[in-house]
């Protein structure tokens, strides 16, 4: 027992538990301090800059405007359009990656011979730089150099056009953007889910087989409940990452046809228009969105990391 219960009902840590906690802080403390310095300084700098009307091309006219930049951003339809686009891409990619990643994790868990080679092959897309991956899929969906249109034309017996413009409107552009994101990051999802699968006691599944449970029943009653923590962690990590999508959209569409994400809006304001104050405000709002998503996942879905380690 590492803790006892006080009269108020609160658990009281034992001396051993307190010593372990102090040791944990001593071991993780230096890395934690460095992480705070590296992470929080840019955030605080962005918050500070967002309170000023500031252009890089005219630094002398810097003026303190408090929260005016935030009001300008939130009143701009471009922000809400980008927010909707970012949310749509996040939902589509994360849901598809969860399904595909789970199927791949099941396959990797069943393979005995060549397991290391299989996992290495699966990780290849994730190891490719995002910019390189985005350019590859850009060329794949291009009307002159791509193989997607001829392939779909062949599979549909000539019904699908050979020169379909995937970047001609919003919904068509969503296909290559989401496909490139799913192709690259599904391996990450599958490895997280595979870690959850390996923690399930095989005796439980064997007992379910003896009781006559079908594959679907075993998945629903044995596998999924026991890897709930791994699923939630995978969803949390991927949602936070997908909500910050930038490279694929920047390379494929440049934000045309209302495909701009929140990260691209921040880039355009800060770099293209040199509006550092407005760009910092967009970045801070994006950071707050990510924080809200993390809180919703952790508190709403009750992610229990300790349970995932047992």
From TrEMBL:
This protein is called what?
Answer: Sugar ABC transporter permease
Q: What is its main location?
A: membrane
Stretches assigned to the ABC transmembrane type-1 domain: 83-297
Q: Does the keyword DNA-binding apply?
A: no
Swiss-Prot/TrEMBL keywords: Cell membrane, Membrane, Transmembrane, Transmembrane helix, Transport
**InterPro entries registered for this protein in UniProt:** MetI-like, MetI-like_sf
Its transmembrane ranges are 23-44, 78-109, 121-142, 278-301
Q: Where in the cell is it found?
A: Cell membrane
Q: Does the keyword Signal apply?
A: no
> PROSITE patterns, alphabetically?
ABC_TM1 (PS50928)
Ranges in a coiled coil: none
The family note in this entry says: Belongs to the binding-protein-dependent transport system permease family.
- Its membrane topology: Multi-pass membrane protein
Source species of the chain: Arachnia rubra
């Amino acid at each position: 027992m590492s803790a006892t219960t006080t009269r108020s009902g609160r658990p009281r840590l034992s001396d051993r538990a307190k010593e372990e906690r102090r040791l944990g802080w001593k071991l993780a403390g230096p890395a934690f301090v460095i992480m705070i310095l590296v992470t929080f300084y840019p955030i605080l700098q962005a918050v500070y800059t967002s309170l000023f009307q500031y252009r890089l091309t005219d630094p002398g006219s810097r003026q303190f405007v408090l929260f005016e930049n935030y009001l300008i951003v939130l009143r701009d339809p471009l922000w809400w359009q980008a927010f909707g686009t970012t949310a749509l891409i996040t939902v589509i990619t994360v849901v598809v990656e969860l399904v595909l990643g789970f199927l791949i994790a099941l396959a990797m868990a069943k393979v005995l011979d060549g397991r290391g080679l299989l996992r290495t092959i699966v990780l290849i897309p994730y190891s490719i730089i995002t910019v390189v991956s985005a350019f590859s899929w850009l060329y794949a969906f291009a009307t002159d150099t791509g193989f997607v249109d001829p392939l779909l034309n062949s599979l549909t017996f000539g019904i699908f056009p050979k020169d379909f413009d995937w970047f001609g409107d919003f919904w068509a552009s969503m296909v290559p953007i989401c496909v490139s994101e799913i192709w690259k990051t599904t391996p990450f999802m599958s490895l997280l889910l595979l870690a959850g699968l390996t923690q399930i006691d095989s005796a439980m599944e064997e007992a379910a087989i003896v009781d006559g449970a079908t594959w679907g029943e075993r998945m629903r009653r044995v596998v999924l409940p026991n890897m709930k923590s791994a699923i939630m962690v995978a969803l949390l990590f991927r949602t936070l990452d997908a909500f910050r999508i930038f490279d694929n959209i920047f390379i494929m569409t440049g934000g045309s046809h209302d495909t701009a994400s929140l990260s691209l809006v921040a880039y355009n304001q800060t770099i293209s228009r040199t509006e550092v104050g407005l760009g910092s405000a967009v970045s801070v709002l994006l950071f707050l969105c990510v924080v809200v998503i993390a809180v919703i996942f952790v508190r709403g879905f009750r992610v229990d990391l300790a349970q995932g380690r047992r």
